[in-house]
Amino acid sequence: MDSLVSTQWLANEMGASDLRIVDASAFLPEHGRVPALEYEACHIPGAVFMDLADLVDTASAVPNTLPPAEKFASRMQALGLGDGSRIVIYDDSPIKSATRAWFMLTMFGAQNVALLDGGIAKWKAEGRKCAQGVESLRTRHFTAWSDTSHVRTKADVLANIASKAEQVVDARGAGRFTGEVPETNPALASGHIPGARNVPYSSLFNPDGTWKAPDAIRATFEAAGVDLDRPVVSSCGSGMTANVVIFALHLIGKEDVALYDGSWSEWGLDPALPKATGVS
Predict the structure, then answer these.
(1) Among the options 44, 105, 204, 236, which is catalytic?
(2) How far apart are CA 96 and CA 24, in angstroms?
(3) Is the pLDDT of residue 65 over 80?
(4) Strand partners, 113
(5) What is the pTM of this model?
(6) 236 catalytically annotated
(7) Residue spans in the chain of domains classed CATH 3.40.250.10
(8) What's phi and psi for 164, nearest 5 deg?
(9) Which of 10, 79, 129, 199 has the most crowded Cβ, counting Cβ within 10 A?
(10) DSSP 45-85
(11) What integer is the mean pLDDT of 9-20?
(12) What would be the CATH architecture of the domain defined by 4-146?
């Protein structure tokens, strides 16, 4: 299974015994939307709902950080996602939250995971059927395993400012990156990690919400000054849209990419850390 599948591919595969469909929609508070209710009102038939708000490390002082492997495995088992499953994820979210689910599933050991190109919006635009209510699947074993080699801490990123071993790519909008647009959380400073490049996550999609072609993705990064021959650390506001950058790079075959999970929610809150404003 490819990492990005079409709505027609999914329609053809529905009903396969090893296929699992997941709605991983999540929203920011300012969106004023409740993902579980939207899922119950309309989801792709057979899809289960992955509550990303629950898949966090509640012991961390930083919001929205990755959960322990055992917690993640337990939640996946309850959803019916297990070893050997082919998992297709979609969302209906402005922040493309399915990429966060993809990152976690692959980090925690799932072997066959894809995103639905265009999400449920494309599915509905094509007149395909939706289901209502809550889907329940038989519990399956999900092996608790974790590869943190693609995750960076605040200390890692701070050390990298001096070493420049990895490039930081910030997925936030240009105004927040430059500091011209203040953060919604007044406790956070404005600006970005020194030396970071800005690739707004929205720039990686076509107008209809499908992913850009690989050549166009590559051109977007290169136009932002990203050297695709060097390793990348992806950052954003709260560790969510940074995963869009990671998946986009995956689509062009680049795997030496890591997530700064704390992102600006952690960096911008610490007055001792260096910060930059402007375009670079």
Answers:
(1) 236
(2) 9
(3) yes
(4) 87
(5) 0.97
(6) yes
(7) 4-146, 149-267
(8) 55, 30
(9) 199
(10) TTPEE--GGGSS-TT-SSTTPPPPHHHHHHHHHHHT--TT-
(11) 96
(12) 3-Layer(aba) Sandwich (3.40)
